[in-house]
Amino acid sequence: QCNLRCRFCYNLDSLSTKPAQELSADEIVDFLDSTKPQLAEDCSLTILGGEPLLVPDKTLALARYGRKNGWQTIVSTNGHCVTDDFARDARRTRLEVQVSLDGATANLHDAVRGPGSFERTLCGIRRLVDRRVFTILSLVCHRGNLEDLEPFYSLAREFGVNEARFIPLKRLGGACKAG
Predict the structure, then answer these.
(1) pTM to 2 decimals?
(2) How many CB atoms lie within 10 A of CB 127?
């Protein structure tokens, strides 16, 4: 499930706004335990969605499991559901948080994520940085924002995030129709 309907979402056709029948954190941990014999020593755990922070307790339980196993653990979020409590717990867990930001301006970001989304995302980023959470800004590159790469990087530096990433648009999910 997700609180947004981003134009480029790879899950766009299958997203729901209603609570779904999802696996519990314990069920996911049981599955991950069963895969350990096949894992590389330096594996990582990436928690994606939809929007993982719609279920923050579950996300943090999985983060604790990943860190307990010595895995680099990262969650990808739109930033809208970052609360002070989540940021504090993410810091304690050493969870890396990647926030999707589609440009250094509201016009660019909101065109992909919806009106008002830019300011809500920036609030989430501020909360993470203020709590000293390892924060990554991630921009999906496409022909509409290629001129904005330097301003995006400057915004990331201004916020004091740990990393800024540029990801090429992939033609799957919502991106196939977004043009």
Answers:
(1) 0.89
(2) 21
Instruction: Give the model confidence (pLDDT) of 73-112 as tens digits.
Output: 999 999 999 999 999 999 999 999 999 999 999 999 999 8
Q: Can you list the positions of beta strands (E) in 8-142?
A: 44-47, 72-77, 96-100, 135-141
Ramachandran region, residue 132 (left: φ > 0; alpha: ψ -120 to 50; beta: rest) = left
| Residue written as token pair 């480029």 | 8
Mapped onto helix, strand or coil, the DSSP state of residue 40 is: coil
Q: What angle do CA 146, 150, 154 make, to 5 degrees?
A: 140
CB contact at 8 A, 148 and 126: no
Please say whether the beta carbons of 135 and 161 come within 8 A: yes
DSSP state letter for 19: P
